[in-house]
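Hi R.,

Here are the chain sequences for the assembly we discussed:
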Amino acid sequence: MGKEEVTAVKKRRKLNTSTSNDGTKPVPVDVYKRVVEFEEAEAHLRPADKDAAFFNKTCQDIRQLFKEIAELKTKETLEAKEKINAKRVEASLLLVALKKLNRLEKVRTRAGRDALHKEKQRVDSTHLLLQNLLYEADHLNKEVTKCLQFKSKDEEIDLVPLEEFYKNAPPDIIRSEVTKADEHQLQLARLEWELRQRRELSEACNELISSKERVAAAIAAARSRLDALAPHLKDVLKSTKPLQECLALRLDEKRDEARAASLLPASLFLLFKNANAYSDILGSKVISVGVCGDEDEARRHDQNNVENDIISSNESDSDQENNDEDQQTKKKRHHRTKNVSKEDKAEAKIKRVFKKHPLNVQVSVKAEDGTALNLILSYLINLKIIVVKFTVSLPKPVTGVSAADVLNGHSILNELYPGDTGDDSPHPATSYLLKNAGISESFSYFIPEIGRPYVWAQRMCGIDFMTSELNEQSVRRAVEPCPNLSVATVENFIMTLKKRLKCRVKLMHELQDLESGKISPPKGSLPPSMRLAGSLTQWQSVGWPEYSQAPSTAFLVTEGLVSANDLLYRAIITRQSAKLVALVALRSDYPKSVPIFSLTLHWNGTHHAGINDDIRDIERVVNTEIGLEERKHCTLSTQITKLLACLDILLETSDSPEFPPDKVILHPVRGRNRSKPYKFVNQGVGVFVHH
Amino acid sequence: MLNKMLYNTVLSQTLSPCGKYLVAGNIYGDLAVFDLDRILNPVLELLSVEYNKPKHIHSIDSKKQICSLVSTEKFLIIGTVNEICGWDWKAVVSVKLSKPVWSIKIPSQTFLDYNDVNCMWLSQDSEKLYAGCGDNNVYVFNLEDGSLISTYKGHNNFIHSIHGKNQQIISAGEDGLVMLWDTRSGKSHNKLEPHTNNKVSRPDIGKWIGSAALGDDWIVCGGGPRLSLWHLRSLDAVTVFDIPDNGIHVSFFHDDCVFAGGTSKHFYQMSYSGEVRVELPVSATTIYSAVLRTKYSTLLSLAGSSPEIDLCTSLNYKDQVLHFR
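And here is the predicted structure of the full complex:
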C-alpha cells in the first residue's frame, strides 16, 4: 500500500513538475492549489501517530537494508551484486516514503501553527475587549462620584425656614402629602415659595424707589422755591431797617452777633451762649457779652481747621528739627549770619505758638455805681487754653493813688477763687508744647503780652483740666468743652466777680478816704463822745521788697500769710511824739479775709511785735479779734479805728506825762503778762477792759 | 482773719510727776500736753512733721486765761480766773478731759469782777498751796480739804510771783513791793522796794516786780527794776545784774546760779557776782514761764509770748522747739 502512495506522489510530482514547467499557462495555478488542498486534506485525515510509527518502521527498514547491503558488499559476489541492486531499489523506495512522510509532517506542522496563530489572535481580541470594558467601567465610576459631589445652586439660596414655610406658604405649594414624604419635593416647594416671595418683594422695592424719587423731586421743587424766596426776604429785611431804628430794636445786631458766634471756637461759643443767657436774664446793665474780631479771618480759619488739626501735631516736631538745623548752620556760618534774623525767626515761632483765634469774646460786668470790668477772653489755638485781658472803666476818676491801684492791675482778678493766680497755664501740656516749639522761656514770661490763663476762664468755657490731669496718657488729646461745667461756672463767676467788683469799689472809696486821712468808722462802734487822739497822717502803697524786709513782718512772711500778690500799704498814725507805722496787707478777696496789720511804734525807741508784747497784743486785737458783726461793714476802717483806740490806751497807760489819761479805764494792767485793757465795752461813755 | 494761735502766749508750764509730760497753759484757756518721751527720744520710723506739736490740746475755758500751773503727785492744779481747780493727772494725759476733781472759788476782794490766780507755790510737804492773786492777796489753802488757812494782805496791787523757802514766803507785786512772810505767824516781817533803789530802778519800764525767789541766804528779784541779788538778812542789793532786758518775769536759783528771763532775746544763767554764764536764745518775745527739771534728766523749758516753746536738755543750749498751736 505504501508503494501505491509513493507512486501517487510520484505521479503528482510529475504533474507538479509538468505544471511548474509550463507555469506561464493560467491553468497550473489551480493545479497547484488543488495539490495543496489535497495534501492538506491527506495530512488532516492521516493520524499523526501512525505516521510517526510508520516513519520509525521505515527508518528501521532502511537501516536493515543498509546493513544487508554492507554485508553483501563484503561478499562481493555477483549474486550479492544483484541482491545489492534489489536492495538499493528497495531502500530508494523507502526513502521516497520517508520524503512523503516528511512532507506530510511539514503540512501538518504548518496547519498546527496556523491554528495556534488563529487561537492567539482570538485571545488577543478578547483581551482588548476586556480592557475596553474595564476602562469604561472606571470612567462610569468617576462620573458617578462626580454626580454625587455635585452641588445645586439652590442650596446657596437662603430659604425661608421650614416652620415658617409651612405656616405661611399657600397649600398649593406646600402639598404636604407629597412634601412630607419626599425631601426633594419639599425642597422644590420651598424654592418655589422663595421665588414667589422674592418676586413680591422686588416689586415692593421698585414701588418704594419710585415713590422716593417722587418725594425727592418734590423736595427739589420746594428747595428751588425757597431759594427764590431768599432775595425777597432780604428785601423785606432791608425795608424793616428804618422801622427797627425807629423803635430802637437791636434785632440786626443780635443776628450779626449770632452769626459771628457761630464762628467762635467751641469753648468760647459755650461761654458766649451761657453769658448771653445771663445777660438776658440779669439785664445788660449787669453783664453784657459781645463777639469781636475779624469774621472773615475766622471763617478762613474754620475751613482750614480740620487740616490744621492734623498738621499741628507734626508741626511742632518739625519745628524742633528746624531749630536744631538752625543752630547747626548758625555755628557753621557764625561770622556771616547776623543775630537779627534769628531773633525774627524766634519771634515768628512765638507768634505761631501763641496764635489766638481771630474772634474773641468780650464780657463786661458792671457794678451798681457804673464801674465796669471788661474782660477779653481769647482762645489760644495751639495751646488750647483761654487767656484773659481786661480793662476797667470808671464812672468818675479816682483821686487817690493807692485807691486807683485797687481797681487797676491784675489784683482785681487775682485769686478770685482760692489759689487761682493765673500765673501759669492750667493746661498740663503747655510746658511740653513750649519746649517742643523750642521756646525756652516759661509760660509766665509771655503773660503781659497775651493775658492771664485763669482757671475760672477755662472752666467758664467748659474746659476742665483737673479731670484731664488724672489721665496722664491723654495729655495731648484735645480737651473737649463740657457744657454743664460752663453753665455752672458762668453763673458762679458772674456772681463772684460782681461781688468782687462791688467790694473793690467799696474798698476804693475806703482807700480814697484813708488817703485823705479820713477814717469813717462804722456807726455804733464808738460813742460820739469818744475822741481818738491819734491821726492817720499817711496812707500809701508799698512794694513787696519794702514790706518783706521790715522786721515787724518777718513772721508773717515766714508763715506764708502774706505774699507778693497781696495789696500792700503803709499807714502812719501819729500822736504827738509817738509814731505808729502799720504795714497793711490786703488779700485779693478782701473783705472776706481780714487785712493783716503789722505794727512798729516809734516812741521811746522802736518797738514791734518781735520785741514788745504790748505791740504784739495790739496786733492780736487788730488782726484776730474782728467780730462777725464788724466784718459786715468796712473792715479796714474798723480795724484802723481799733488800732487808734489801742494806741491811745497803750500811750495813756504808760504813765507818761505827754499822754494824760482820757479814756475810762478800770484797771491799767492785768496779769503777769501786764496786758492793757484793749477791749472796748459800749457802756455809758464807753469803758476799756481787759479781755 | 488770722488764727489767734499765731499770737499765742503761754503764761505757765509744769511737768507731770512721772516726768513724761509737759503741760502748758495759754491766755486763751487752752492746756497743751506734750509727750516728752516722744519728743526727746523720737522713734525714727514714727517721726512725723507733727512730732513737736502737743499730744492733746484741752480747752478749759476759752474766756479765762490759764495763769498758773502746779503739779502734785496726784493732781495737776490749774489757777485760772476766780478759781483754782485740780485735775487728775490720768485725765489730763488722756484724749478727752472730763471734769476737775476739785475746785476752789476765789471771789475778788476788790471792785474788779475778776481775780486772776497769777502764781501758785506748793509747800515742800505738798500740804499747803500758796496762791498769789489779782486781788492783791496771797491765799494759803489746805490741799487736804481745800479750806482756806490764811490770807496774806499787804500788797497794793496784783501779785506777780510767789516763792518760799525755810518757813518763809516771798511775794512780788505790780506795786513794786517784794514782801517776806513768815508761814508760822502769817505775818509779813520784811519788805523790799527795789524801785526806790536808784542802782536798780528803771522808771521807763515801771516799778513792778515780775519775779522774786528765795535762796538760803539770798533773794533774787526783778521786773521793771533790774534783776538784782539781795542779801536776805541785811536786805542790801549786793549784785545788780547787767543784762539787756525790758522787764524780768522769771527768776530763780539753781546750783549756785541765778536763772532769769523776761522781755529779752535771751534767757540768762549768771553767777552771784553778776557774771553771765550761759545765754540761751529764745523764741518768745517775753518769757513768762521757765520750768527746770533735775530729776530723771536735766530739762529746761522756756515759754512766753510765742506759739513756740523752747526745750533744752542741757542747760547750755537750746535743742528743740515745740509748737503750741
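Confidence is low (pLDDT under 50) at residues 1-23, 310-337, 468-477 of chain A. The first helix of chain A runs from residue 2 to 21.

Let me know if anything looks off.

Best,
T.
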